[in-house]
Amino acid sequence: RQRGTPERTRGIQRHPEPERQSRAAAASTMAAGELSRLLDQDGDGAIGDEAAERMERAEIARAQAESDAAEGERRLQVARQQFAEYAQSKATEAAGLGSMIRDLLAACDGVGSAELTKKVLEIKETMDAAEAEARAMASDASKDAKKAAVDTNVDAAPMETANGAGGGALAAAAAADDLDDGAAEAMDEDGTSAAATHDAAADLDPSMNFVERAKYIPLRLDMDERKLLRLLEAALHVSEYTDKVDVLTFRSKTQRITKQLKEICAIMCGLVVATDYRAGQNLIKDKDFEHNAQFFQRIFEIGRRHKVMNPEKMRSEYGKMIYLLQDSQMSDVQELLNFKLVKPMRTAHALLAEKNGLAMLKDGLMHQATAEIMHEGKPRIQVQGEIKAKEKAREHLSRRYSHADLSAEEILSVLYSISDNNAYLRFNRDPVDRMIDFLKRYFDPKTPEPGFSLGITMGMGGARLSHNHERQYTYVMQSMMLWREVSNDMFKLWYLAEGDLLREGGYYQLTNTGQGLNRVQSAPQTNKAIHQVLARCQAKLGHWVGSSVVHLGDHNVPNALMFIDKYTQVPRILNPVALVVQRVEELCEDDGLRQYVESTFGGVDECRKTILADFFRHAFDGSGADNFFDAGSCIDGRLTSAWNWCSKIEKKSYYPVFSLAGFTGFDGGDFRS
Predict the structure, then answer these.
(1) Which CA distances in Å does 362 have to 208, 392, 414?
(2) Least buried of 47, 414, 577, 586, by fewest C-beta within 10 Å?
(3) 539 three-state secondary structure
(4) CB 494 within 8 A of CB 578
(5) Is the distance from CB of 373 to CB of 387 less than 8 angstroms?
(6) For the segment 20-64, what is each residue's pLDDT rounded down to a tens digit?
(7) d(Cα 260, Cα 242) in Å, to the nearest integer?
(8) Residue 292 in contact with residue 269, Cβ under 8 Å?
């Protein structure tokens, strides 16, 4: 062992690390030297507690140095891209000013004095030179950012084109394939690509394209599966998996992971015995864990399916479950376990494909059989008629497409699952639609109403951006349009995120991100999908204000699980605000409350505009951190600003209106689960 260390040291010298990783290399060499010194001191191989503690400190320092080097590289890449986008925006502004000057020169031709025309010509020449310089700088910055992304194997986020259409998003999405060729697309249970037909279906109405949607819609749980779900929740609730596994130490992590996994499996077996003695006896009698692999795969798949369909449930248990399943996919752990805990999620499309029933998804009655029945503004007889029509459509589909392999109950299960997805969209996407409607209804995109301008200035009111009314209106609109598209595609993004997290051989690094130890891992499938969503938004809006950097796999958003968790908070933020704004008029039916609203705000509409103007200003002002990497105008920074606004709601002048409307907080839901 003592002779092997110098050989490794000479190997490092023959192949030096790049300069950007010098800190990590130095820490690694220090750790190797520390180990060599300890081995020299203890020739018999016995390392005492003090030596072990020193070794552990050296290992922690090495891991942290590697993490800091990777994070520094990522920050440099983001800075390059943000500078390129800034340069491109300035080039676009220069082009706009040049066009205005040319129009002014044309208006002065033959009308103004010769002296005025001469001055305008001088301004035009200066502006033309500035525009050419700005375009050249933007082009150079964009090339440098793309070259750096290729050199460092980091996927480039979309760059804003000269017309602001965001044409670089598709190229960036395509570049994400290079990160992991083996996991570039989600796979169905039969091994076919779940995303292969997405481009062909993109031109169709997403709400009507049931073939594409069904690929990512989990099946609703039946009664037997719900019993197993309770067992899983109980086992995860008492588990301290992440407390035992996610710690920085030089000791074997594989042994700790295997021990904890077997402990959770043993707890679940014990709960089965306590619930149903005969079933539990058959499960554990003369068998070890690997003989019950299908049982464990099924119970964990049920938990994953339940969480996707009910994001407000399993708020602490789901993270533990995903991390233990992620660890179980490691090759070293699988060698010790001798069985797998992960299997593909059961979806509506997978069931119909297995039972030869995909034709039903193209039936014209699918929309009526799965549509949400909205009662607002409708008489009771109309609502009852819509319910009966929906039930008849379900009965017709179950009779028409059932056969020997596909029962009517299974067809109804698929229809109920798609209906659940529509209910999810109603409660998670519709709040974004209502806020977009409020923005359009109460604010003019060009001309601000006195007292209700959306303009913000850096340093005032906590803002870290400077936008005039028109620019802030566009910035807010595009941010909420992006949130709407993410909410609309959440089931697909969740499906792909689990694919990134649970892929076999996936590597992650345990890193102190400033918010405790987190698992930092790349997410190529999720990254590609979110860039496609971003490209759709940019194509619809035609102009993009701010940065288009997407944080994923860095200190801000360590992995795909954190990404999903961030965007499931959007309806928790927007729904209370939308409900309060809607209820202001209802509150004013009380004479005392009407007097309060009129004396404080000037009326119902003024109260609404006061709330909305403050939200649209300071929930999108780049606040939430002291630098433009952790917050600002990037894709994730917009949500960070909204969180920051939520934390200050009690200090707002209109907070009494929130309290009167029944507001209790932005968290909501069942805190226990």
Answers:
(1) 9, 18, 13
(2) 586
(3) helix
(4) no
(5) yes
(6) 445 555 555 555 555 455 444 544 444 566 776 677 667 667 766
(7) 9
(8) yes
Look up tokens 């400190």; give the residue. Answer: 57
Q: Report the interhelical angle of 253-275 vs 293-309 (nearest 10°).
A: 90
Structure tokens at 490: 């959440």
Residues 116-128: pLDDT tens digits?
777 767 777 776 7
Residue 192 tokens read as 């076919």
pLDDT tens for each residue of 334-380: 887 788 889 999 999 999 999 999 999 999 899 999 998 888 888 99
Q: Is residue 361 a contact partner of residue 210, using CB atoms and an 8 Å limit? A: yes
Longest CA–CA span in the chain (Å) reads: 104
Please tell me the distance from the alpha carbon of residue 129 to that of residue 132, in angstroms, as a whole number: 5
* Gap between the Cα atoms of 448 and 587, Å rounded: 27
User: How far is Cα 33 from Cα 5, in angstroms, rounded to an integer?
Assistant: 8
Sequence-distant (≥ 6) Cβ neighbours of residue 265 within 8 angstroms: 289, 292, 296
Burial 626-649 (b: 16+ CB within 10 A, else e): eebbbbbbbbbbbbbbbbbbbeeb
- 122-136, 143-157, 180-194, 573-587: the lowest-pLDDT one: 180-194
As a whole number of angstroms, the distance between CA 315 and CA 307 comes to 9
* DSSP secondary structure letters along 64-132: HHHHHHHHHHHHHHHHHHHHHHHHHHHHHHHHHHHHHHHHHHHHHTTTS-HHHHHHHHHHHHHHHHHHH
How far is it, in rounded angstroms, from Cα 402 to Cα 355? 10
CA dist list (Å): 126 to 87, 115, 572: 18, 17, 51
Q: CB of 387 within 8 A of CB of 429?
A: no
Report the alpha-carbon distance of residue 27 to residue 6 in Å, rounded. Answer: 17
Give the C-alpha separation, 508 to 495, whole Å: 19
* Strand boundaries in 451-596, DSSP class E: 509-512, 517-520
- The one-letter amino acid code at 365 reads L
Pair type for strands 517-520 and 509-512: antiparallel
Residue ranges with strand state E in 482-545: 509-512, 517-520
Pick from 559, 570, 540, 539: nearest CA to 638: 570
Amino acid at 586: E
What is the phi-psi region of residue 180: left when phi exceeds 0, alpha when psi lies from -120 to 50, beta otherwise?
beta
pTM of the complete model:
0.73
CB 373 within 8 A of CB 426: no
